[in-house]
User: Fold this.
Amino acid sequence: MRLKDKVAFVTGAASGIGREIADTYAREGAAVAIADMNQDAAMAAAADIVAKGGKAIGLACDVTDEAQVEAAVEATVKQLGGVDILVSNAGIQIVHPIEDFTYAEWKKMLAIHLDGAFLTTRACYRHMIASGKGGSIIYMGSVHSKQASVLKAPYVTAKHGLLGLAKTIAKEGAQHKIRANVICPGFVLTPLVKKQIPEQAATLGISQDDVVKKVMLKDTVDGEFTTVADVAEVALLFAAFPTNALTGQSLIVSHGWSME
Ligand code: NAD
Assistant:
């Protein structure tokens, strides 16, 4: 029970990586707010945790909407008694060659990944200061926080940006015992990635099998996908770490795809 008596606010937690992090945190004793724009799925995920004996609430929250973020964090503090851990995880992917991106797609990507990180950080940070206990802020970066791939200009730009945000929060937050770190996963077979496989196959003119083997997993040490459990284990480490020794860092979990 490494997160006993802690409260976690996890965005995009109705699916994929966020869902696994919410389940893991609940198993480790945390009360978890599952914040997702898919309200039905957020409620179902929370009900599932409660059915297993954990503590969770589901909240409708679009991370790009300032009022919704403020309201969701307020509801968490009111219903669960505070907020000690933020996992800013909600994200989407849109792939095109740069010349085919519309301005609206570019802005949507930066809004979800960067505006969402800012808005959730600010809302949770204020409560972490007020409680006097500090907290742990975790951003879901990517191997694309460290390197680029074709077709992903806004995603790579946004994921690189999270490193700057985490380093700044690490410096500003230290005096309040607030830590900030970034998890950088390789490819994880969630709905976000499953959707990309046929899209990339069409754009690159190769088979779906080749997208997996020759594009996504080409540079891993063993040709394997990273799993949601792998990522949740790192999220647990960052959440439970007791001191400012581990702050302003980014940890790649990618089967050796990237070793930067
Ligand atoms: P997913 O599609 O399974 O889950 C994403 C969740 O985010 C969904 O429940 C969706 O409803 C929610 N969401 C989307 N937009 C939102 C918004 N505006 N407000 C609130 N919720 C919103 O995706 P995933 O693969 O679990 O991705 C989670 C995070 O991990 C993303 O930030 C993604 O960039 C990152 N990531 C994923 C991989 C991968 O290979 N799957 C690798 C590296 C990083």
Observations:
- The longest strand covers residues 178-185.
